[in-house]
């Protein structure tokens, strides 16, 4: 056997390396997509950013003011005095507490009491605007406004979130399931390193050729993530959610925008890394020729 042939990987080794490269692509994809999914479910930062974004809060303020106009026509009181007390800061604080509650729910699997809206200024403004009317009507307006804001910030309310979670906890170890799901990215990353090590081991005879397989895996992962986002955009989850709640649709759209930006940056690194690996492989190949 010539020295040149002795320094080359055998055909079975190359075949196994392609399998390892395919596994590396799949495992990197699982790692990234599960990492983004876990972030969407459990990231306090992401929940706070989406819940307190200017678009979401402004939409809530406009919706509340429109509802006040409807109540003012029905109960015959001055809407402007009440609308002036709709505080953007109070809504931001309420959204923040709602996001923190949701984060604890999804990370610990335990349903605490759902935060409720209360604004002394808004309540006093309603009673002042309806001072010459029945106390029962003023109480009704305050109750309806509070329910409106609660449903807007918590579109699913306790019946689906808290009550549903209690039922799920009675049937399964939900906190344990959540902890297991949060481990998926680390599992995918660990198996990715294992697949990368297999490529290096199989290509030990000509380690330079491993750049071809690494580059293919990185680029393949980048294109797979792009394809996944195309499917998600095609599903139009925020539009579907907006049919049930406009604010919920805005929050999902805001969260998706943040995740899309972050995943886009990661995808660019993957494609750049894949191109660099393939470029190094071709360069070494021509230098040996």
Rounded to an integer in angstroms, the radius of gyration calculated over CA atoms is 28 Å
Strand content: under 5%
Task: Give the helix proportion (percent range).
Answer: over 70%
* Uncertain ranges: none
Strands, total number: 0
N-to-C SSE string, H for helix and E for strand: HHHHHHHHHHHHHH
Q: Average pLDDT value?
A: 80
Write the layout of secondary structure elements.
Blueprint: H1 3-6, H2 11-42, H3 44-51, H4 54-75, H5 79-83, H6 88-108, H7 120-129, H8 135-153, H9 157-160, H10 162-171, H11 174-202, H12 210-235, H13 237-244, H14 246-288
Could you walk me through the main structural features you see in this protein, from its secondary elements to its overall organization?
- The protein has 289 residues and is an all-alpha fold.
- Helix content is 83%, strand content 0%.
- It has helices spanning 3-6, 11-42, 44-51, 54-75, 79-83, 88-108, 120-129, 135-153, 157-160, 162-171, 174-202, 210-235, 237-244, 246-288.
- The longest helix has 43 residues, at 246-288.
- The radius of gyration is 28 Å and the shape is elongated.
- The two termini are 20 Å apart.
């Amino acid at each position: 056997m010539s020295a040149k042939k002795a320094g080359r990987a055998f055909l079975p080794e190359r075949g196994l390396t392609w399998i390892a490269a395919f596994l590396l692509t799949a495992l990197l994809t699982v790692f990234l997509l599960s990492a983004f999914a876990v972030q969407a479910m459990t990231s306090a930062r992401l929940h706070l950013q989406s819940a307190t974004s200017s678009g979401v809060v402004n939409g809530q303020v406009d919706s509340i003011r429109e509802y006040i106009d409807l109540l003012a026509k029905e109960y015959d009181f001055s809407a402007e005095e009440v609308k002036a007390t709709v505080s953007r800061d109070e809504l931001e604080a309420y959204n923040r507490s709602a996001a923190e509650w949701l984060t604890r729910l999804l990370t610990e699997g335990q349903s605490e009491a759902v935060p409720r809206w209360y604004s002394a200024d808004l309540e006093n403004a309603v009673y002042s605007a309806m001072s010459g009317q029945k106390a029962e009507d003023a109480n009704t307006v305050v109750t309806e406004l509070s329910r409106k804001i609660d449903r807007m910030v918590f579109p699913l309310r306790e019946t689906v979130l808290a009550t549903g979670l209690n039922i799920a906890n009675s049937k399964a170890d939900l906190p344990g399931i959540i902890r297991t799901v949060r481990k998926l990215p680390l599992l995918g990353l660990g198996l990715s390193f294992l697949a990368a090590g297999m490529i290096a081991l199989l290509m030990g005879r000509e380690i330079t050729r491993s750049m071809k397989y690494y580059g293919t895996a990185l680029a393949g992962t980048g294109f797979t993530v792009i394809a996944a986002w195309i499917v998600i955009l095609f599903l139009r989850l925020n539009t579907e959610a907006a049919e049930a709640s406009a604010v919920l649709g805005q929050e999902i759209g805001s969260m998706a925008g943040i995740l899309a930006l972050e995943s886009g940056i990661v995808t660019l690194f993957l494609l750049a890394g894949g191109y660099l690996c393939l470029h190094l492989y071709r360069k070494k190949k021509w230098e040996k020729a």
